[in-house]
Amino acid sequence: MTTTVPDGVKAGMTAPTTSAEMLPQKALIQLEGVTKVFETEEVETHALSDVHLAVRPGEWLSIVGPSGSGKTTLLAVLGLLDTASRGTYLLDGKSVLDLSPTERALVRNRHIGFIFQSFNLIGDLSVYENVELPLTYRGLPAAERKQRVEKALERVGMSHRARHMPGQLSGGQQQRVAVARAVAGEPLILLADEPTGNLDSKNGESVMQLLSELHQGGATLIMVTHDPAQARLGTRMVSLFDGRVVQDERLR
Ligand SMILES: Nc1ncnc2c1ncn2[C@@H]1O[C@H](COP(=O)(O)OP(=O)(O)OP(=O)(O)O)[C@@H](O)[C@H]1O
Ligand SMILES: [Mg+2]
Fold first, then answer.
1. In this structure, how many other beta carbons lie within 10 angstroms of the beta carbon of residue 159?
2. Which pLDDT tens digit goes with each residue over 203-216?
3. What residue ranges define each of the domains in the chain, with the CATH number in brackets?
4. What is the 243 CA–ligand 2 centroid distance (Å)?
């Protein structure tokens, strides 16, 4: 195992050049000894084994590894869609593993944006309504929802399709709407599981371009990908094998 990610900017070594470098390098995500075991009648599957991972604000992690190595399970734990069997998870300094289901849903809605391979838009809601829905769950006032939805759709270049239904859009456009939905709530982290897996190369590239722009704007991104070229767009590449982190490499 090689670990080439430095522990943080060492004080006094270099003059800080950006505000990000002047901030204390507090981890946004800190997993320690995270293990996930799926138990079925006959077998136990160790989907994650003793995962340690610290992610700082503004990083863009590419998670890679063979099929079945635990990538989706890791995102599910990070996104509070599933709980670890053992270990600790601090999100923005707070432990989130022992929250009640209701509290978990609140943290998820407030702090995490998801982008899935299959877009997961609601077919009988318009583009606008899809992006608005998580903000409605959060109880934001209508005026603020409107402002956020319009801004998010503009960001992904989909304002002109606000009244369309998802079925009237191309795959690439649907994924752009899904990105708008994920960012409208201004989450702490964006999680993407093979975001271009269902797209042709041209649409895939435009979605990757969008993710790059979000990263440049300061978003913290954790993206699962099978595509080595996409993986290298990140600032760091974490390789899983059999549920373990076998490589953690700083890319830039
Ligand atoms: N709900 C479940 N019940 C039992 N086993 C599961 C469950 N979900 C995942 N697993 C097992 O956990 C392991 C990791 O699965 P995971 O979906 O995280 O892999 P992955 O790296 O995302 O693979 P892929 O690249 O094919 O998407 C696999 O062996 C899988 O069979
Ligand atoms: Mg997967």
1. 16
2. 999 999 999 999 99
3. 19-250 (3.40.50.300)
4. 12
